[in-house]
Design the sequence.
DNA sequence: CGGCATCCATGGAGATACTG
DNA sequence: CAGTATCTCCATGGATGCCG
C-alpha cells in the first residue's frame, strides 16, 4: 500500500530485514566486494538470507550486482548512488552504537538475566 | 549474547521492533507526550504493541515514563538523554525517506505487482 | 537455491480499575 | 455509558534456518 506516514516510515520499509542495514554498511566500506567476502563480513548470516536480501536490495535499486561470467564464477556487489546515499544516512546510527556500546551491552545483559532470552 | 559485531549492529538491536524508531522519532518532536496522543501519532500501532515497545525502550533507558497516578489514568512519555541522542541519529534516515519517497513508492509498487504482497 | 519445519513477533479481542 | 492506560490469552503470518 503506497503511502507512508512520514519519511522515516518510508526508509524503515526499505531497510526492513534483519541484515539489510549491515549489508549496506559493509558495501559502503569500499569498492565492489565479492560475495564470499561480504558473507564473511556480515557475521551470522546464512547464505540463503544473504542472497535473498541482496536480491531485494538489487530490485529496489540500492545494490548493483555484477556477474563477470567467468569460470570459476565471479560475482561482486556494489552500491548504486541511491544505495550509497542511504548507507551514508546509516552512519550516525553506527556512531551511536559505537559510542554507547558499553551501555547497550549492560542493558542487554540485564534483559537476558530477566527473560532468559533477549526478546 | 553480549558482543556486537560493530556499532551499527548494537544500534540495530536496540531499535529492533517494528515501531521503536517511529516512537523515538515522535517523542523527539516535542516535550512529554501523553499516551493517547502518542498512540494517535504513531498511526497503525495497536495498544498492545505500543505499550510493549514503550516498556522495552524504558527498560533500555531510552524513554522515561511518568505516571501521575491520577484517576482517570494520566501517563506521559519523554526521552532520556540517551534516547534523545539516538533519536537524533535517526534524523538522516528520516530525511533520506523524505527525499526519496517518490522513488521508494515506485519501487514498492513494482514489488507489489510482482509478488502480490510486499516482501 | 527451493522445500519444509519452526519459532517469534505481531495483532486482535477482551478484561480491569476508577470516575464523571 | 464513556474515557484512559495497561495487561493477558490466543491466533497467525511471515521471517529464519536447515537440509538436500
Sequence:
Amino acid at each position: 500500500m503506497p503511502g507512508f506516514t512520514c519519511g522515516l516510515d518510508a526508509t524503515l520499509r526499505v531497510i526492513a530485514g534483519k541484515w539489510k542495514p549491515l549489508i549496506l554498511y559493509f558495501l559502503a566500506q569500499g569498492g565492489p566486494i565479492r560475495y564470499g567476502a561480504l558473507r564473511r563480513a556480515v557475521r551470522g548470516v546464512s547464505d540463503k538470507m544473504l542472497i535473498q536480501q541482496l536480491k531485494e536490495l538489487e530490485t529496489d535499486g540500492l545494490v548493483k550486482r555484477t556477474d563477470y561470467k567467468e569460470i570459476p564464477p565471479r560475482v561482486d556487489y556494489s552500491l548504486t548512488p541511491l544505495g550509497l546515499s542511504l548507507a551514508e544516512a546509516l552512519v550516525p546510527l553506527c556512531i551511536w552504537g559505537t559510542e554507547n556500546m558499553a551501555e547497550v551491552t549492560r542493558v542487554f545483559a540485564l534483559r537476558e538475566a530477566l527473560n532468559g532470552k533477549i526478546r
Summary: The CA atoms of residues 39 and 47 of chain B lie 7 Å apart. Residues 34-36, 39, 47-48, 51-52, 67, 71-75, 119 of chain B lie near DNA strand D (CB under 10 Å from a C1'). The beta strands of chain B are 33-34, 63-67, 75-79.
